[in-house]
Amino acid sequence: MNDDRNESGFPAGRACENWRGPLTRYMDDEMSDEKRTAVERHLELCEACRREVELRNAARAQWSGVLSLDPAPDDRSAIMDAAREYAARGKREASVWQRLRSWSMPRRRTWALGDLVTGAAIALSIFVAVQFKPWRKAAGPTAGWASSTPAVFYGQAAPGEQRVPAADPTVEPSPLPRPY
Amino acid sequence: MGDERTDEQLMTRTGEGDLDAFGILVQRHHKRALNLAYRLSGDPELSRDIAQESFLRILKGARRYEARARFSTFLHTVVRNLVIEMVRKRRRRHEATTSGVVDPPNGSPESSVRVDGAAVPPDVMLERKEIRQRLQSALATLPDDLRDAFVLTEIEGLSYRDVAEICDCPEGTIASRKHHAVEQLRRILTPYDQEKEQR
Question: With a cut of 0.90, is the ipTM above it?
C-alpha cells in the first residue's frame, strides 16, 4: 500500500484529532450550513483531513460493493409462496370465524349459543345462592358458607345437647369385658 | 413497465389483501433487505432466512401499517430487529462461529460477483474476498449498537434521523456511536496493514 490507506480502504487516521468527529458528520451530510462552511475552510488548509475525506468516500463505495449479496433465483418465489400460504390460511380462519358468528347469531329465534350461555349463567347463580346462601350473616369467627355448617362439625355442642366429658388421660381405663 | 405506485401505497393495498402489491414490494426491496441482514449479521445463509421472514412479518403487519414513516425505514427496522433476535437465538444455542463471520458458499450468487456486467477476474475476486473477510471480522468485533449505527449510516447511507428512528434512540446518540465505530475500526484495521507492510 503506497498511501495512508488500509487494505480495507479505511484511512489510517492521520487527520487532525479534533476534526475527525466533524469530518464524519460532514461526510454524512449531517451538519448545519455554518459548521459545514467551517469544515470546508479547514479542508482547504489541511492536506491530511482532505485525504481522510477522499479515502473515506472511496472506502464507503468499496464497502457497499464488497459486502453485498445477490438474491438466489428462488428467494423471491419462496417469499411469495409463503405469502400465498399465509393469505390462504387467513381466509380459512376468517371463514371459520364467520361460521361461528352465524351460528351464535341465528336469523330465526331459536336456541342459540348466546341464549344457552345466558341460561347457564342464571342456573349457576341460582345454584350458588341456594347452596351457599351468601346473604346470611356470619355466625362466628367464620363467615359465608361456613356459617351454615352445623356447630357439631367444630366440636361444639349443639343447642340442647349434653356432651359426655372427655376421658381423663391420666386414669387408666378399666379393662374391657371379655367377650366370653 | 414498472409500477408507479409508491411503497406506502403498495403497503396500504397489501393491508387490504392485495398480494400483487406485496409482490412488487418484494421485487423492489428484497435485495436491500438481504444485504442489510448480511451486513449486520455477517452470515449469508442466515441473511436469506432473515430477508424472507422480514417480508412475512411485513405482510402480517400490513393491516396495521400507518404511513407515518417511509416504507424503507420500516423495512430496515424489521430487518434489524430480526437480526438481533435471530443472532441472539443463535448465540444462545452456541451455534455462532468463533469470528461471527461466514463466507458465502461456493457457487452462491455472491461468489460470482460481476462488476459493470463483466465477470470479475479470479485475482480480483480473491482480493475482494480477503477484504470482505477483514471487514467482516472488524465489524464482528464491534458492539451491536456501534455496528448498527455504522452499517446503517456508512454502508446503507441512511440519515441519522432515520437510524435514530430504527434504533429508537436520539440522533445525537447515533452520531456518537458512528464516531466511536469509525475510531474502533481504524484501531482494528491499522495494525494489520502495518504488519503487512513490514512483511
Answer: no
